[in-house]
Amino acid sequence: MGTPDLNLLPLFVAVAETWSMSAAARKLGIPKSSVSRGVAALEASLGVQLFHRSTRKVALTTAGSAFYEKVRPVVATLRDITGGLPEQEAEPSGELRITSPMDMGLTFLAQLAAEFSARYPGIQLDIRPTNRTVDLVGEGFDAAIRVAMKLTDSTLVARRLSGLESAIYAAPTYLARRGVPRSFADVASHDWVAFTQWKRLPPPLVSPPRPRLVTDDLLFVHRAIREGLGLGLIPTFLARQDVTAGLLVRVLPTWALKAGSLFFVHPPTEHVPRKVAAFRDFLIAFIEANPLMASSD
């Protein structure tokens, strides 16, 4: 007796439970001839006859009945295991690990997560806002939201979501105290809250001799501006709610700095997991409904 092909066990169980080669073929979605050949191959490897055959139906032999009792729970367990895999279920499910920049995580991403969870209750979100570039594969993340002028990691699959822009903002209390800049040169005479990447302002802005505050955290820049420390250059989506609430004023409102693009990236795979595709598509629709830029890019 040889070692049976384990792939033939579900086929054997289907025939035993339907008493018919044809019915088993329909249940499994394969040709009847494949069922017949499979049963014959299993019998040959075991060295026993498993079924009595007639023109209308088949019936288990004594050896076939004994074999069925041993094999049936194994096949049922395998069906439960494979049927319960997240990617096999009708709705996307399972844990989804996402990383994003801190400013994204503390602004629109919280709202998106709430709406996404309501739509896909079977997905457990693990979102990690951070200002460092995460190694998705090495650290076990499914995908990332990233901001860049141009992505440098060509090993990732990327989808551009939106352009981004930054503008100059100040608190109403600061402007009441120091006056409103009316020209690009005027900003040089003002206190300035500077992000480390923008210590020197881009032309045609004239940089002040020395910023009042320098930091590498855009959220801290945002908060310091709102507290009246000085002018600052921050993404327009980050300032939007405060402008609406009257906590910030856009200075030189016709000018904006192109600040790269927002991307959704994930490791390459032959089949994108449904939970990743669901989040990507939901994110695209969310940004279309809630643009990150005031004007089209």
Automatic annotation (TrEMBL):
UniProt-listed InterPro entries: LysR-type_TF_proteobact-type, LysR_HTH_N, LysR_subst-bd, WH-like_DNA-bd_sf, WH_DNA-bd_sf
Gene3D superfamilies membership: 3.40.190.290, Winged helix-like DNA-binding domain superfamily/Winged helix DNA-binding domain (1.10.10.10)
Gene Ontology biological process terms, A to Z: DNA-templated transcription
UniProt domain HTH lysR-type: residue ranges: 4-61
MF annotations from Gene Ontology: DNA-binding transcription factor activity; sequence-specific DNA binding
Keyword Transcription regulation: yes
Pfam families cross-referenced by the UniProt entry: HTH_1, LysR_substrate
Keyword annotations of the record: DNA-binding, Transcription, Transcription regulation
PANTHER family per UniProt: HTH-TYPE TRANSCRIPTIONAL ACTIVATOR TTDR-RELATED, HTH-TYPE TRANSCRIPTIONAL REGULATOR
Protein family according to the UniProt entry: Belongs to the LysR transcriptional regulatory family.
Protein name: LysR family transcriptional regulator
Phylogenetic classification of the source organism: Bacteria, Pseudomonadati, Myxococcota, Myxococcia, Myxococcales
